[in-house]
Amino acid sequence: MSFYSPRFSYIELKLVNNNFLMYKFLKYSCFLFLLLEVFGCFVSRKLIFLAQGKDTLPSYSGTLLQIQNKDRIVYAYFTRNSSRLAVVFHGQHGTLQSISYLGAKLSKMGFSVLLVEYPGYGKAKRYFSSENNVYSDADAAINFVQKNFSFSKQNTVAVGYSLGTGVAVEMARKNLVSKMILFAPYTSIPDVASYRYVPILPQILIWDRFNSISKSKDITLPVLIVHGKKDIAVPYYMGETLSKSFFNAKLITLSNANHSIFEFITETHWKLIRDFVQ
């Protein structure tokens, strides 16, 4: 004998309906997450890598190196003055030409100077910009010059400005240099995006993180940080935070300096920088 149970059928129907709704929820959630990831990749890279300068070379004497790195050519401007090498990484709007002031200054201090271009910038504008590509090209340039021009790691200093500070930190983490100078550094790109735009969302969306603060705890080499208190592009507190996080760091505070930091560095400050790298 069989019995029909309307209540049982109703429960079954409700479970099926709930499962269907859960399936749709998961399906659209995955789609939304994927959309946000793609959006984050595209938008974050458009916000981070802002190549606006020309592909002209610095005006001071030097040689344009073209270094093969996988399927890319790394462009770097090299001046040989001594057995000490300063490797310079420019900011997000820059090129080899735009950072030439710093290159010339280091050259006058007696350093051999290597200015490294990023993929997607200047003469390398045909290549794709990404954090990994930038690191890879910087690594290739340093290794090429150290090997072919007989520079030791002990005589190599990494120098970064703004976006370039994250590149310098990665080169220090890879143990390619013995000292590091950071002008207007950030803790990480998501931190900068949170400061400038939306507090939480950038942490999820940004792929190219340049996470200097997380790497700082593993870096023991001497670090000099120069930061302006009136910097609204990369706030001063980020440089201060990094100076406390590195094992061996000094901080030079420029009270009136904004993000155009080199306009505010006096000869007194340059002497402190020179003393640090001696």
UniProtKB/TrEMBL annotation:
What residue intervals traverse the membrane? 25-44
Q: One GO molecular-function annotation for this sequence? A: hydrolase activity
What the entry lists under SUPFAM superfamilies is as follows: alpha/beta-Hydrolases
Q: Please identify the protein, giving its name as recorded.
A: Alpha/beta hydrolase family protein
Where the record annotates domain Peptidase S33 tripeptidyl aminopeptidase-like C-terminal, the positions are 218-262
Q: Which organism is it from?
A: Leptospira noguchii serovar Autumnalis str. ZUN142
Q: Which UniProt keywords apply?
A: Hydrolase, Membrane, Transmembrane, Transmembrane helix
All copies of domain Serine aminopeptidase S33, residue ranges: 85-191
| A Pfam family the protein falls into | Hydrolase_4
